[in-house]
Amino acid sequence: MRTLLRRLGFYVLAAYAAITLNFFLIRLLPGSALSNILTQLRGSSLSPATVKALEEEYGGGHSSTFSQYFTYVGHLFKGDFGTSTSKGGPVVDVLTSDLPWTIGLVGSATIIAFVAGTLAGIVIGWKRNGFLDALLPIATFFQSVPYLVLAILMMLTFGYYGGFFPYGGNYDTSRNAHLTEGWNGPFIGSVLQHGTLPALTVALASIAGWIIGMRNMMITTMDEDYVLVAAAKGLPQWRVAAVAARNAILPALSNFALSISLVVTGSIVTEIVFSYQGVGTDINNAVLAGDYPLMQGVLLVIVFTVLAINFLADIAYVLLDPRARKEA
Amino acid sequence: MRALRSPKVLTGLVLLFVFALLAFVGPLVAPHSSDWTVDRIHHVPLAPNGTYWLGTDQQQHDVFSMVLNGGRDTLLIAFIAGLVATVLSVVVGVTAGYLGGLVDDLLTALANIFLALPGLIILMVIMKPLPPEDTANPFVIGAVIALTGWAWGARVLRTQTLALRGQDYVESAKVIGERKWRIMLFEIVPNLLPILASSFIFTVIYGIGIFTVLTYLGLVHTTVPSWGLIISQAISQGAVMVGQWWWFVPPAVCIALVGTALALVNFGIDEVINPRLTSARVGRGKGVTFRLGMTPVLRTAPRAVPATTPTPYAPTEEVAK
Amino acid sequence: MTATDTATGVVHGPKRPGTPALEARRLTKHFPVHEGLRRGRVVHAVEDVSLALPEGTVTAVVGESGSGKSTLARLLTQLITPTSGELLLDGKPVGSSAKERREWTSQVHLVLQDPFSSLNGVHSVRYHLERPLKLHRKAAGKAELDALARELLERVALTPADRYIDKFPHELSGGQRQRVAIARGLAVQPRVLLADEPVSMLDVSIRLGVLNLLDELREQERLAILYVTHDIASARYLADTVVVMYAGQIIESGPAVQITDSPAHPYTQLLLSAAPDPSRTEQVELRGRGAPPSLIDPPQGCRFNPRCPFAMDVCRTRQPPALPVDGGEHVAACWLLSPDHASASVG
Amino acid sequence: MTTATRTREPVLEIRDLCVDYGVGEHGVRAITDATLTLHRGEVLGLAGESGSGKSTLAYAVTRLLRAPGVITGGEAVFHTRDGEAVDLFGADAATLRRIRWDQLSVVFQSALHALNPVARIDVQLTDALKAHRAHMTADQRRERAAELLRLVGINEDRLRSYPHELSGGMRQRVMIAMALALEPQVVIMDEPTTALDVVTQREILEELLQLKDRLGFAVIFITHDLSLLLELADTIAIMYAGRLVELADAGELFHAPRHPYSYGLLNSFPALHGERVRMEGIPGSPPALSAMPSGCAFHPRCPFAIERCRRETPELAVPAADLSSRVAACHLQDGLETVPAPLARALGSTL
Amino acid sequence: ACSSDSKSPGGGSSSGSSASGTALVVESNPVASFTEDFNPISTNSIGRLENTSSLIYEPLFQINSLDASQAPIPWLADKAEWSNGNKTVTITLHSGIKWSDGQDFTADDVKFTFDLIKSDPAANAFGAPTVSSTSVTNPTTVVLNFDTPQKANFVAIAQQLILPQHIWKSITKPEAAVVKAAQAIGTGPYLVDKFSSQLVTYKANPSYWQGEPKVKSVNLPAYADNNAASAALAKGDIDLTGNNIANVQTVFVGKDPQHNHLWTDKAPYYPQVNTVSLLLNNKSKNAPELGQAAVRKAISAALNRQSYASQCETDYELPATSSGGLTAPVDGKVMNSALNNDLKPTADQAAVDSLMKGAGYTKVSGKWSKNGKTVKFKVTDPQPYTDYACGAQAIAKDLTTAGFDVTADLAADPNAWSTALANGNYDASIHWGQGSTPFQKLQFTADPRLTAPLGQPAANNLNRYDNPKATDLFKAYEASTDDASAQAALNKIQQLLSDDMPSVPLLYGAAWYQYTDANFTGFPNADNPYMNPAPNSQAWEYIILKLAPKS
Ligand SMILES: Nc1ncnc2c1ncn2[C@@H]1O[C@H](COP(=O)(O)OP(=O)(O)OP(=O)(O)O)[C@@H](O)[C@H]1O
Ligand SMILES: Nc1ncnc2c1ncn2[C@@H]1O[C@H](COP(=O)(O)OP(=O)(O)OP(=O)(O)O)[C@@H](O)[C@H]1O
Ligand SMILES: [Mg+2]
Ligand SMILES: [Mg+2]
């Protein structure tokens, strides 16, 4: 329990640091929502008075940074992230509408990749130099090709040229689709169809890491005496493999938590390439439009999610490893 | 250097060498400079032909020349990112691991926070305020990328340092009166080299990917076309939609190959760090399968013992007490 | 249980005329433990140890695992700071400033158990030897360093020096490595050499070589040597004086042969009866089974009393002082030796 | 030392065992032509320096040797409880599984590493029962696990502990209890007590010998502590550089070693009694597998080496001077050479 | 649960109320997702982002900016009369108009709206001139008074969307208010049907004052970026849009040549509606030489406009031909005829030489210099605007060839770039023209009254042109009460710009416009140019009302 409490303490600290960093980092940025708005208002000859008024509104306030900071923190605690300057409406609304998509896409892809990759790693490691080892170079390729290139390749091959899957949007919004958001078959079908390619990209890019990591851990663990003991006991093969896998999975679990922020980075890219409408595209648009409240909101939500996943992984680790539990 | 024998590592090294060469001499041997154009009027990219091996882009730049010119920045930036990140991770990781205590707590918390922050977003935010001179400077970009890429290495190095800290040779160095920094630098760091190499390569791969993305998102200011920039322009100018593959496939393939090459080399380093992985390779292709608990029996041993085998030892009742 | 109970006067170790090279007075080391939310608990790793190491002698420290042998050795090198107690070099107390501590490193050297890990695999033999030379003897110039390094190798019988000086640890056998480790210790020209189980990781066939080397160093260099081991037979072989530790305390000390031939403390007796001895003919009986006590919460009185087959009431309440066994150097901390209590003895 | 109930019945016969590490040109030979027989109820000690191939031999026989270890020759015949003779090197996986633990179990050097750190003791004690005694119910298995713990002197309330919650001695006891769970014919023990201190070591060994007397299994006991073996074993095999160099009854070996290496080893252990004399051990260090000396591998360190030792590899043979069936691999003992005095002691004399 | 019939005409299974018939799909700006805000005066509501505000809220008049001489089209207002030296306008409203909640639309609503943007300048996103006072004469007549002549800015008054007073009077910070679908009450032809973050649907307002529109429903899907929108367009999923699409002939028209159309089927394919110019910062700190008219004119003479038009704009835009700053293809009728075709498509080195020598420069090792200083500056444009980036590089090349010391500076971030421009923190930059009337277009590059000091944001005259003569001429235009004097003033301004060249006209900027007539007919095109199709709120309302489903 104690370890967990300590970890929790760290997470609170990290969250606070993120909140603060978030505030000050963004104050450092040049440009503002103003120029974005002025650009949008082409076609009208704005009077200097209007420009001034808009500057007051969007050009960054003039009150002291400190008091801004406290207002910001105070608002955060009330769940108020401010108003998006590029999309209108509270940032919270943007997040509530877009975050579920991202979580659904990235979450499912990551979990599928983790589970499938780990299982594959276990099998490949167990078989050592079996024919499955041929998977390794392929896996290496996917692991090392940048997300962007991978996403583009996927979009071109399976989407644009192959035509197997749609490669833009979250579901079919075309005029003949007549889909209603909600838990109904056609809608979910469409969501799955549209999610396939981006999810595949996220999954493929990360699965290789799990396969290789798990294989290496498996081979390392199989060298442990207790695995040999399991074999010496005349246990069935799968039981011996299970003993090794059960121990090898522990480091994989901490790696899982570590890699989450990489996955997040990758999924932002994936969303952008596949025109997927989630917080990844949001943050890109927010950066381009100088929409700082939205940027802050997305950044915070992502950091909090990563921290939460890390904490969950910590808990899982403690539950799975009796040695960690002892310290706890 | 047993790792060198692995065909994977060898392929990786050869590829890397080729690309490193390309980065160095590419700009020198490129038929044209990056801003050279075939003409100033046409806007339909030329397909690959005898003169322009990889065709031209919309502005009639020679793609082959751009690809040759584009490697240097990409590799340089990734390399610098790897270098800076590795140095940072050594400083933080080894210091935290070796000194322990409050320093460790603070540095570890710092690394963990950087781990939790999604690098790309931080970079988007950091790159924005940089003046154009800086976002065009490979050293600055590399350093900034490194800022988001050091934490993994630091964590691994810290864990490893914790293990090395207890080694007797560290204790022995203390006993002869070595100073702390010297112990860290001369006793611990050399033993971390394989891990450093691995984390360096990892960061370089990360650097290539993130630099490509940053260019793609238009956050990098550069006048020399990097591979990422070529891809980004091809996509924004609709090359994908009309199938002008020669414009974006070559740089994409270059990036993919460099990444793969690095990962292959990392394979070898992994085996140096963890020799057990090497033993997993032994016997491949020799008709021997190693399975846990089923040691293979290959009756190849020459009979060193002649037919007159000495009587196996069997104590007799009389001799036993 | 208070420290004042114990014999404050007894300083263990070989008795030689003059000031001992190194003397420890009432050294105590408590390691803080972090367990649960209860704070302020400590491991009583070394308790009230007084030990003198005169030059030209070998003192062996024996005892079971966890009895505080290594902690004692590390305390003497100042790798860890004692909770209380005092260290004297040639009769002079040492301060704790960084400078004095560095000074100390040139006088006292520690050779560790595992020659595979006590030499850094990335450095050559030369580097290992030249570092202390540079640090403490301010030897300058390549030639001078080289000459000194070769001389050191020859002193530990790694001859010809040429064959070894540019090798890396992994190119040497265990015994050769341990010799290099010792040579490095000699490089600082120490007065005192502490050896923490220097041969336990070595192959049996080469152990004696290293022990014999230590013996020669005692004779030729007049070093004061502390030999830490759990192998009581080798302690007997090498040492002038054997000091037996149990649960952080010295419970018996005296001339090596005397200790092994007629141990006085029940724990020493137990230790001897457990040691393998092929020439033993009768079946041994272990008297005092069980595990050593928790050092966080050591037992009242004599720390051996829960296991002791002869435990008396007094053993459970009062810590025995070091009592003379036969009028000589041989002392043991056992109430059985006290005339007041011996009568109550059962065995 | 030896017990009255000594039978002549062989339980494990190893003939001409050869083991390589690596295949093909990268392979090195770790065991050459090892031949020995283990009899029912006997304690066979295997001694020798680090790297001499003791563990390799033990694991190869049980087919538990890890990659890149390969058995390149010889055979190992195991006589089961039911009198069936199984060639372990020809056996298929199912047969091996059947014999393992049920008839032949192993205690590893470090119990800390040999116990699965994430499984409770009871699970580790019962999983072999589950695999080999299908008819037992969960309750019976539990009861048996508790019984086993009591057998090695551990309170059964420790059943639900994890390995890291036990002390080193307890862990090693658990390991032994585990090895005895199915009452095997043979237990192979690879340095089972090296990591423990002497008092605990002796406690455990005493218990082990009692159990052996009660249950009648045979033991292959591997250690480099020859003085311990001399107290413990019935028969001792000495290995040097991958070969068996001497094989003799424990008492014979102690009093009258026939191989110079055995002699040297015996001279490396300072005595607990008597006069303190300077001993020299064995000069030099053991050879590396990849750079074996020609002829007798021991000749560079041998004080008695003759020219022949450099050229010819001696074979295990009954020393000419002995009538017993003890064997040693030394040219000096072939009856043609003059045997140096230390190697020619008569039985019954003292060192 | 009951989703089996979801493909049947009539829309989603759950919505019985959705309009019948095929929906018209429009798209204007890529957004990742919508947030429910239909506020017409906010700068970032759905209506503003997607140019659909006037489907709900309507202006007083409609303007076809393709023809500068065409009179405003009466809409909520029937007529507007200027008096008092162009300082007062009396607006007569159409009668019988009702808000969609049933309340009457009256002059009070118009007065309320103009009062509101006076008291809250931030709400004045259309740039309507600020009134000094307003009064309502009767329910259909409202009088707006101004301090200065404002007839020249009538377009901005005409296009101000009118808000229902009964709803908006209680809203405190109107420009930031969030207007949910249910509160989106206007006079317009459509009502919000359904809102989801990925798709907004509008349905026809059955009681619309001009009669229920023929297009019964309008769909507005969210496309995360240009690529997604282009792909959807190519598939025929979008009926009306305006995107800059590379290879538009292949990617869009070629996919269904029968139905997929652009403004015309020949290059430049799009209507050319504004003047893209090379803004030269007259007050540049780096390059004070840019403050000299002769240098600016020499720069103009050194450019290869045709090259930018073909290679950078892929022939979607034409090279500029008039130095007066107006857009020849649409402003022909009001252009100063003396300035027709005085800009050359290719560089004229001789002209450069004479202008520079005239200004006292000499060529030293190939570079024009004076007092040892070369004319050294940067052309800054954002990397992501690939056509401008291309242009900037080409211009740098041309100018270097001509003897200037110029580099292209491709800013990574458009936002930072536009901030730099607004604040006067640049030397030179390619920028599109702004304004929907010829006068506004000229104001954008040259009205000294609309600029701001260096370091403060300006929305017009980013090149910081400062010339009292220009101020006078702009004032003269505003004061002119008849067409002839107005035209005379306009000609003078053009002449001044031609002489001084505060910014260099480069290209005629296109209004991006793509449509497919597979489902609806009646789109404007070169043959029937009834409205400027550039994505603009009012224009789209006007166009949509002209459309009819294909039978
Ligand atoms: N740094 C430390 N922190 C806390 N406890 C420690 C520390 N070092 C040693 N101890 C404890 O002090 C006691 C004595 O340990 P020490 O290593 O001196 O024993 P030892 O006699 O050398 O044993 P061994 O024969 O196993 O080497 C042990 O209980 C040990 O757990
Ligand atoms: N995986 C391996 N690859 C190559 N050589 C090996 C491997 N494992 C062991 N060896 C070599 O085989 C020889 C015999 O090793 P083994 O472990 O059997 O020795 P041992 O007698 O058990 O030594 P110890 O007393 O140290 O346990 C050694 O020389 C060792 O170096
Ligand atoms: Mg110790
Ligand atoms: Mg072994």
End-to-end Cα distance of chain E, whole Å, is: 33 Å
Strand order of the largest sheet of chain E: 8-9-10-1-11-22-12
Structural class of chain C: alpha/beta
- Using DSSP, what is the number of strands of chain C? 12
Helix tally of chain E equals 16
Distance between the termini of chain C: 26 Å
> What ligands are attached or bound here?
adenosine-5'-triphosphate, magnesium ion
Helix count, DSSP H or I runs of 4 or more residues of chain C:
13
Largest interface (C-beta under 8 Å): A-E, 72 and 82 residues
GO molecular function (chain C): ATP binding
InterPro entries (chain C): AAA+_ATPase, ABC_transp_ATP-bind, ABC_transporter-like_ATP-bd, ABC_transporter-like_CS, Oligopep_ABC_C, P-loop_NTPase
Keywords (chain C): ATP-binding, Nucleotide-binding, Transport
Domain ABC transporter (chain C): 22-272
What does this 3D model show about the protein?
The complex is a heteropentamer of chains A (328), B (321), C (347), D (351) and E (551). Chain A has helices spanning 2-27, 33-40, 48-58, 65-77, 91-127, 135-144, 147-161, 185-222, 225-232, 237-273, 279-289, 292-320, 322-327. Chain A has 328 residues and is mostly helical. Chain A folds into two domains: 34-80, no CATH class; 92-327, MetI-like (MetI-like fold), CATH 1.10.3720. Chain A starts with a helix and ends with a helix. With 321 residues, chain B is an all-alpha fold. Chain B has a single domain (2-320), classed as Orthogonal Bundle (MetI-like fold), CATH 1.10.3720.10. Helix content of chain B is 63%, strand content 0%. Chain B has 13 helices and no strands. In chain B, helix 1 (7-29) packs across helix 2 (63-99), helix 3 runs antiparallel to helix 7 (151-165) and helix 10 packs parallel to helix 11. The radius of gyration of chain B is 27 Å and the shape is globular. Chain C is of the alpha/beta class and 347 residues long. The model of chain C is unreliable at 1-7 (pLDDT under 50). The radius of gyration of chain C is 21 Å and the shape is globular. With 551 residues, chain E is of the alpha+beta class. Chain E has helices spanning 46-50, 107-119, 154-158, 165-168, 226-234, 248-251, 293-301, 305-312, 328-331, 349-358, 386-402, 414-422, 438-446, 468-479, 483-500, 537-546; strands spanning 24-27, 61-62, 73-74, 77-83, 88-93, 133-138, 141-145, 190-196, 199-204, 217-221, 240-241, 260-261, 272-280, 318-319, 362-364, 367-370, 373-374, 376-382, 405-411, 428-431, 503-510, 514-516, 520-521, 548-549. Mean pLDDT of chain E is 88; it is low at 1-19. Bound molecules: adenosine-5'-triphosphate (2 copies) and magnesium ion (2 copies). One magnesium ion binds at residues 69-70, 196 of chain C.
In short:
The complex is a heteropentamer of chains A (328), B (321), C (347), D (351) and E (551). With 321 residues, chain B is mainly α. Helix content of chain B is 63%, strand content 0%.
Write the layout of secondary structure elements.
The complex is a heteropentamer of chains A (328), B (321), C (347), D (351) and E (551).
Chain B: H1 7-29, H2 63-99, H3 101-116, H4 119-127, H5 132-135, H6 138-149, H7 151-165, H8 168-175, H9 180-188, H10 193-216, H11 227-236, H12 245-273, H13 275-279
Helix pairs in contact in B: 1-2, 1-12, 2-3, 2-6, 2-7, 2-10, 2-11, 2-12, 3-7, 4-6, 6-10, 7-10, 8-9, 10-11, 10-12, 11-12
Chain C: E1 22-32, E2 42-53, E3 57-62, H1 69-77, E4 84-89, E5 92-93, H2 98-105, E6 108-111, H3 115-118, H4 125-136, H5 142-155, H6 161-165, H7 174-187, E7 192-196, H8 204-221, E8 224-228, H9 232-238, E9 241-246, E10 249-255, H10 256-261, H11 266-274, H12 313-317, E11 323-324, E12 331-332, H13 339-342
Parallel strand pairs in C: 3-8, 3-9, 6-7, 7-8
Antiparallel strand pairs in C: 1-2, 1-4, 4-5, 9-10, 10-12, 11-12
Helix pairs in contact in C: 4-5, 4-7, 5-7, 7-8
Chain E: E1 24-27, H1 46-50, E2 61-62, E3 73-74, E4 77-83, E5 88-93, H2 107-119, E6 133-138, E7 141-145, H3 154-158, H4 165-168, E8 190-196, E9 199-204, E10 217-221, H5 226-234, E11 240-241, H6 248-251, E12 260-261, E13 272-280, H7 293-301, H8 305-312, E14 318-319, H9 328-331, H10 349-358, E15 362-364, E16 367-370, E17 373-374, E18 376-382, H11 386-402, E19 405-411, H12 414-422, E20 428-431, H13 438-446, H14 468-479, H15 483-500, E21 503-510, E22 514-516, E23 520-521, H16 537-546, E24 548-549
Parallel strand pairs in E: 1-10, 1-11, 18-19
Antiparallel strand pairs in E: 2-3, 4-5, 5-7, 6-7, 8-9, 9-10, 11-22, 12-22, 13-20, 13-21, 14-21, 15-16, 16-17, 23-24
Helix pairs in contact in E: 7-10, 8-11, 14-15
The complex binds adenosine-5'-triphosphate (ATP) (2 copies) and magnesium ion (2 copies).
